Amino acid sequence: MRIxxxxxxxxxxxxxxxxxxxxxxxxxxxxxxxxxxxxxxIDVHYDATARLLQVQDDGCGLDDFQKLLSFHESGWNxxxxxxxxxxxxxxxxCLYAATRCVVTSYHQRVDIDTAAALDKAxxxxxxxxxVVAGTRIxxxxxxxxxxxxxxxxxxxxxxVEVWFNGKALTRRFAAEHLATMPTPIGLIRxxxxxxxxxxxxxMVFLQGFCVTKPTGYGLDRVNVVHLDxxxxxxxxxxRDKLIDEDVQKKRIDAELKACWRRTLEAAKNQLTPxxxxxxxxxxxxAWGQLxxxxxxxxxxxxxxxxxVDYPIQDDSGSSDYVRQVSVxxxxxxxxxxxxxxxxxxxxxxxxxAHWMLARAKGYLVFDWIGLHPDHWVQRHVRFLEDETAxxxxxxxxxxxxxxxxxxxxxxxxxxxxxxxxxxxVVEIVDSGVCHRDVLYIPAGETSGEPVRQVSSFVDExxxxxxxDMNADRDALADLIRRLRSVxxxxxxxxxxxxxxxxxxxxxHGKAFQVTVGVGSAPGHSVALFxxxxxxxxxxxxxxx
Length: 544
Fold this sequence. Notes:
Blueprint: H1 9-15, H2 25-36, E1 41-47, E2 52-57, H3 78-84, H4 92-97, E3 100-113, H5 114-118, E4 126-140, H6 147-154, E5 161-164, E6 167-168, E7 181-183, E8 186-189, E9 202-206, E10 209-212, E11 223-227, H7 245-270, H8 273-286, E12 304-307, E13 322-324, H9 331-336, E14 341-343, H10 352-361, E15 364-366, E16 381-383, E17 389-394, E18 398-401, E19 410-413, E20 416-421, E21 424-428, E22 433-435, E23 438-441, H11 451-454, H12 466-483, H13 488-499, E24 510-516, E25 524-531
Parallel strand pairs: 1-5, 9-11, 14-15, 14-16, 19-23
Antiparallel strand pairs: 1-2, 2-4, 3-4, 5-6, 7-8, 8-11, 9-10, 12-13, 12-15, 17-20, 18-19, 20-21, 22-23, 24-25
Helix pairs in contact: 7-8
C-alpha cells in the first residue's frame, strides 16, 4: 500500500476564510498588490452605508485575469518573486470578505460573484468602454467598521502615496520621510540620533506594513526599521508577524546597537567632550557603548549625588536626602583627592553610619556602575560599605529601650557621637545615628527623626505606615525632651499628663508621694500622702 498527500479542494476553499485573523488584512493585501504592480498612487474609497470598498492604482495593470482566481500562484514576475516571496493568497481575501468583486484594468473587466467563485464557477472577462489606467477593484458587501480611523495606522510605513476618501495619508514612518541609514538588514532610523533622547521602542516594517511594534508605544519616540524583504518573511496570511520572530528580533537589536555605535563615534568626533557627554550619555548607557567615555576627562553629572539632608530609609525611591550635582567634578579634583567618591547602597539600618560619615565629610556618592569597568575614574572610587563602621557615644548620659508602635531600638543619649571608618573620624552633635539596632542621640538632636533610620515604615504588603511613623517620631522626640529635662517636677508632670489620671474617680482628691530609685534600671514606689481639696476634672497641678 502506498499513500500520498491528497487535497480536498472544496474543504480547502471553504476553510481558508478562517485563515485570516484580521478583517483589515483585506485592505493591506490590496495595497500590497498595487505596490508590487509599480503604483505611484493608490486611491481607497469606502462607503460604510453602502458597504462598498474601492481600491484603484496607477500600476502596470492586469495582463492575465486568471491570476485573480489562481490560489497559491503569485502571478508576479521573477524579479518580484525573488525580492518579496509573495504567497499568492492575497486576492483570495476578497472572495471571503465581499459578496461581489468587480475588477477593471485598462479596457477589460470581470464581475465575480464570490459564492459562485468558491464553487469554482467560470466568469467571463469582458471588454469595458471605460479605460482604467492600472487596476480598480470594487468590493460589495464589505464590513470594515472604523476603517477611517484605522487606515492611517495601517499605512504608517507604506512606501506608496495613499489617498483615503479624497484625503492623502501622512505615512509618517515611510522611509522617504525619514533620515535613515542603510544596514545589512535594511533601513534604520534611530530615535534620539540628533538629541540623544534614545528609545528601545521599535517599529519594524516589512514591505511597508508593521510586523513588530512595542506595547503602548508613543509615535514620537520610536526607532523605525524597514526590513530587506529578501531576507525576512512575514507569517502567512496576515503578514503581521515575522517568521522566527525571536531570532529575527536579535538580529534587529544587534543592528540597532551597531547603528548607535556609528552615530556615537561620529558625534564624538564632531562635538566637544562636554557636549558629547551631556547629549549622549544616556544613549551610550542604554545601548552598551560606555567604553566611548574611557579616554575622556569629562564625566556625566548624572552619576554624582551630594548628600544634602538627613539620610533616612525610604522605600519609595525618592531619596530626598541626595541631589544630583549640577556639574561633575573634574578629573584633576578627583585624582588629587580634593573630591572623594564613595559607593553606597540606599540607606538602611546596616549602613546608616557610613552615610552619616559621608555626609559629614562632604563625600560625593558615585554610581560607578554607570561607567565602563576600565574607565579611569574606577581607580578612585571608595567602596565605603566594605569597611567596618565603629560608632561610639561620647559622654553617655542614659540608655533605655524605646517602645514605639513600629520600632523598638535601644536609645543612647550622649553629648556627641563618634563615627570611625578606616582612617576617617567624624563627631556628630546634631543628628541621631542608627547602628546595629541602637539609636545614638547627641545633644543637638530633638526632632525624633532618627526613627526613620531604623525603619522605612513599610509593611509586608508594601504599604507605607505614615501614622505609625509620625507616632514613633513624636514619641522619640518627647522621650528625648523628658530625658534631657533638668526639672524633675516638670518631667514627672509631663508623664502624668499622658496618663489622664482625672478619668479615674478613685484618685480624685488624693495626694501621693512618688519615689524613684537610682541605678541603671531604677524602680519606683508610690504612697498615699494625704487627702487634698477636690480639683476640677481634667485639671492638673505641678509644684515643688
